[in-house]
Amino acid sequence: MKSLRHLALTFTFTFTSVLATPVDYGLAKLAAAAGTPAAQLPVRVVRNEAALGPDGFSLTREGNRLLVSGGNERGAMYGLLEVAEQVRRGTPLAQIQPATERARFGFRTVKFNLPYSAYRTSPTLEQHHDVCRDPKYWEAFLDMMAANRFNTLTLWGMHPFQLFVVPKSFPEAQSYTSAEMAEWRTLWTRLFALAKERGIETYLINWNTFVSPEFARVHNLGEYHSTLAHIGEGTKAKIVDAYTRECVQQTIDEYPDLTGLGITLGERMGGQTPDERRKWLDDAFFSGIAAAKRPVKFIYRAPLSANTGSGGTTSEENDRRTRAQIEGLRANPNIISPIFTEFKYNWSHGHSSPNLFIVHGGKLSDAYWNPAPTNHRVVWTIRNEDFYVLRWGAPDFIREFIANNGAPHVDGVLVGSECYIPAKDYITLEGKHKTWNWAFERQWLWYATWGRLLYNPQTPDRTFEGLLADRFGSAHAPDLLKAWTLASRAQLRFAAFHRGTWDGTLYTEGFTSWTDRDHNTSFRFFDIENIITHPVLDTKYVNVADFVKAGGKVPADKISPLQLASELDRDMAEARRLAAAVRQRGNVSPTLAAEMADIDAWSAHGLYFAAKLRGGVALATFRKTGEPARQAEAVANIEKAAGYWRELSAAATRFNKPRFPHNAGELFSWARFLPAVERDIDIARGTAQPDLPDAKRPR
User: Fold this and answer.
1) Can you give the residue range of the structural domain that contains 411?
2) Strand order across the 65-70 sheet
3) How far apart are CA 97 and CA 105, in angstroms?
4) Which residue, of 108, 111, 395, 400, is most buried by count of CB atoms within 10 Å of its CB?
5) DSSP category for residue 374
6) How many CA atoms lie less than 13 Å away from 667 in the CB half-sphere?
7) What pTM does this model have?
8) Has residue 278 been placed in a domain?
9) Whole-number Å distance between alpha carbons of 483 and 571
10) Of all helices (H) and strands (E), which one includes residue 260?
11) How many beta carbons lie within 10 A of that of residue 3, not counting itself?
12) Does one domain contain both 133 and 172?
């Protein structure tokens, strides 16, 4: 890993001047859309919190003026942005129709892992250093968040405080000069101000007892503070308590527009009991907040371990003890209620089932919401470690997720990745199709569907069709949205069928996992044996081995592997038909062609999975019965699957680089796994040995 010291490069600050309030921002966007100075717009903005609630808005007529009412300033801004969107599409201000929207969740959040002091160390992350110091990047990213109704940006790092403050009692912790620190301060100060202008709250979230590498070297605290290896025993040195306390206090005091802080409790705290970890929080973190000059909001990430280990475990007792600590924070005058208690939804693979089965460590008890909480609210983190290249858009999945997981004790969702930073676009080939600058713009539909549906789950599909029409024309929009919804099910169904846990256990778009042992990482392709034996995440599915063992019978409320294969065939065929209809209609721009290549890729991915499921059932049945016909059936299906893999590889690289860096440490490409795909055929024929089942593989 490169030292943070090398980041002291020259900044070029060209931030747009801050307009001061979200209403000012919304008026400026509407004025730009209407081509009219803001002062001359026939619009009046008022506040009506009682009727609309936080972040809600309504649009009504008031004589010749449009009346935009907001439950708060942010809600009024959303109303103005909604009007601006309609005006850009050609609707005159005088013809804006009455409308009312209320926010379903109060916490609609993007999880953004900074490339500095990052959770993982790899060139994949470090390549974003320059872009994440580019003010134009942050303006564009924050504009996107506001347009999609996200109201919170969380910035994550193992120990980001080194980029924010120089602890007064511990100057040895800092390696930057005064001039270099001034540049960092300018960046963060302006970023927080720009976020505030857009109604976006900001949080800084770190990992427990990590300190700066310089501080660790001076005080002999261990090499892991430099390597950022996050699994293992952590320091118990009391000087870390004092150092953390001062970092927390100064960060709050020196950045008045920073909304809050958060903490990840676990992993590099091996060797400590859960009670010792909670005591460290009290002594270091919460005491630092109490000593600050102003109150802040707080995100308490639920403990990642219920024992002295450094991996993932859960227990009801630990849940109840943690809840007790959270409720005790009422006594801290500088922590604003409610506290947001965060859980990883289905561990690192939230894009899987719309039902909750596990969090980090295993099953989650109801201790955090039974009885109903009064001082905290649950928030889910929907991680994306499943697709970094292929675009995604499935509004029906998001609506179902919200319906199933939006109980009264839940106040929102964080969406984002630990292993992928949406900054530098290092994937797209140059060409006429590339009409964007940054990585997050590739996944514009993903952000639009998550943000707008978390705000209002009743947002209709015509809203997303409108966004597609803005880019590609109204004739194509309905077919495109249906095709995206269907094609994205390939990813969702695989992640629901194939149980993933921590980040590297499942990389859906690559049909692989990757190891993470002492930073010596590599890919593992999911061969036919894995498809037969690996356990499911969503228990409505039955895995291949259990299906064959039961003689091909499943309960009425379960879905067999063959039923799943039929569903995939049906949906992928329809996605392909819709894509063909768009192409036959003509007027397909290079940019639309690039996006549709991902529909082609997901469709091939789903068909590959379906054929492999059928091959797995036939092969497992042959092993059970010895029927030659079943072996022939297995070979035929797996040969068919290999053809779909070739289609996937071709579609995914039509507008993208054929190989790209990955946190596995190796360059990723679909083509590199073709020998493994073809080896499945030999396994079915009995001329090659399968890979070891997961349970027997060394870790």
Assistant:
1) 105-459
2) 43-47, 65-70, 57-62, 99-101
3) 25
4) 108
5) S
6) 9
7) 0.96
8) yes
9) 9
10) strand 260-264
11) 10
12) yes
